[in-house]
Specification:
- The protein is mostly helical.
- Among the domains are: 124 residues, Alpha-Beta Complex (Glutamyl-tRNA Synthetase, domain 3); 50 residues; 98 residues, Arc Repressor Mutant, subunit A, CATH 1.10.10.350.
- 44% of the residues lie in helices and 10% in strands.
- The protein contains 21 helices and 13 strands.
- The strands form 6 sheets. A 3-stranded antiparallel beta sheet has the order 3-4-7. A two-stranded parallel ribbon has the order 1-2. It has a two-stranded antiparallel sheet with strand order 5-6.
- The protein is elongated, with a radius of gyration of 33 Å.
Amino acid sequence: MSNNIRLRFAPSPTGPLHIGGLRTALYNFLISRSLGGKFIIRIEDTDRNRFNPKAEKHILDSLDWCGIIPDEGPLNGGNYGPYRQSERKEHYQKRIDELIQNGDAYYAFDKTNELDELRKESEKKGETFIYNWANRTNFKNSLTLNQEVTENLIKKGDYVVRYKTYNEGDENEISVSDEIRGDIKVDLKLLDDKIIFKNDGMPTYHFANVVDDYEMKISHVVRGEEWLPSLPLHFLLYKSFDWIPPKFAHLPLILKPTGKGKLSKRDGEKYGIPVYPITWKDSSKKFEGFREIGFESNSLINFISLIGWNPGDEKEIFSLDELIKAFDIKRIIKGGAKYDYDKAIWFNQEHLKKITSSDIYKGIEKEIDNKKLVNENKIISLISLAKERVKFKKEIVNECINITYYAGDDLLENMKKINITEDILETIKDFIKSFKELKNINSFELKEIYFNQLKKRGIKIGDGMKSLRLMATGKISGPDLFTILEIIRRDIVITRLEKSIKIIND
């Protein structure tokens, strides 16, 4: 692994992991692995008012289920911990002191209600209230108060720390670089003096993530585009500390299935679709996750990897290892991509086909109760037939039952839908004789025998197949008939056919 390539996923545990967050984690993981680097999990729990311990567990459990395993993090440690921001206060205090000492930050003592009033007054005038270089000396802060007053107010603890985004006389334009969107120019005069340290003794996201990314030696910051407006501030903070910034990439939004806008929890309720990897329960509702619905974790990973990225060719089905080899940050798109749940189901069907029938059988052996109907050593073949017809693994048992079930009660009603001629009946009688005489039953030989018998009597294959299927299964549609005849015990098939002939003749 390269010691220089380090990427992180830094969720805030204020709520469950949304698939948008899962995609961010996945992209960071894929880039780190494709470049031979390390992947880090950091819990950004500076918002203590909204902190939810259940959310952190949901996030970590979701990543674990999806196979996004960190090299460093709160559960497995590492050389750059702690990996929860609530445990890193001394790191932030040290850096805050540095900024204040070099004049890039200042204490602010303005009351929230006072600032709210000023905002309302500005709105009445049709103006936007902003606390910045143009008016910072009009407020109650360490820039306007004497040292004694400032120190007394600091002792009371009722303050925040603001960052000077711009000083009169400085160059008013900054150019920031994004790996997906290129260079972006920003007028610093339009930026406000952001709060970087709160009165609860915790840093804001803006400050903490910059400090942590530097101290944890993060080489690439890959995050959602909602953080793009904050990029100039983060560049300025790196500049204030004389640190080399990492490479930044801001991911496009995952959009609603229909209409415009970002996919949200409410969209999950509205459209009846999952938006979380695993189930989330809050005080009033339960939101079923992809796992509980029946999705394979690798199919979900495959699905979300292509919401915002393309491999450059027509290939769609990827394992996690294949994604690692193929992933290139340059192929991440700029625009948002719609969430298509039908496509997610298709991916699951395709990945389910790749699971060996033997492995599936190990998980459902006790549930299959139709072994008496099936030829010895044909259970695996039955599962192979079933898995091609279902969306989720949990449906396979029922599909096995459906395939082998004889719908005798429907036989007479279904007979009205097809025309079973005397010639067809005679052909099926011949087929029964041939079936009884076969030493080894296989679908190819059964098919050849029946088709030759139909040909001798000049019967269309379609007519002959409908009749045989109905008489052998009681149904007029289903998977490959001759595979079914191979799977179901010979004596049972013959009994069904002979019984059907008797019913027809009667």
